[in-house]
Amino acid sequence: MMPTLLSQLNEACFWDVDITKLDEQKSKRLIIERIIQFGTLNEIRLIKQFYGVETVISTLCQLNYIDPKTLNFVSLLFQTPKTKFRCYTRAQSMSQHWNY
């Protein structure tokens, strides 16, 4: 029997949820987000293989927040301009008080 995706991921990335109750398809946004932010390169490879590169990119592009370092990393990893990510365009459109 093939191991499931979730059984190959570090449970520490899902500290606030019961990983045994996650569905690999219904929870793909959470899984992708957590592994990109907190997972290892091997775990990133696993989600790319399981979901496909296009699905991973499209999911990441829809996230409202990715920290700046992770955004730089995924932009380079997937060769996708930062401007394609919702979190980047939202951050650019929100003026901060020190930017006046």
What does this protein look like?
The chain has 100 residues and is an all-alpha fold. The protein has one domain. Helix content is 50%, strand content 0%. Helix 1 runs antiparallel to helix 2 and helix 2 crosses helix 3. The longest helix is centred in the N-terminal third of the chain and has 11 residues, at 28-38.
Mean pLDDT: 90
What is the H/E order? Answer: HHHHH
In total, how many domains does the architecture comprise?
A: 1
State the oligomer: single chain
Strand segment tally? 0
Structural class: mainly alpha
Specify the number of helices: 5
N- to C-terminal separation? 59 Å
- Residue stretches low in confidence (pLDDT < 50, at least 5 long) are none
The major pleated sheet works out as: none
Helix content: 40-55%
Question: What percent strand?
Answer: under 5%
What overall geometry do the principal axes of the alpha carbons give?
globular
Rg, Å, rounded: 15 Å
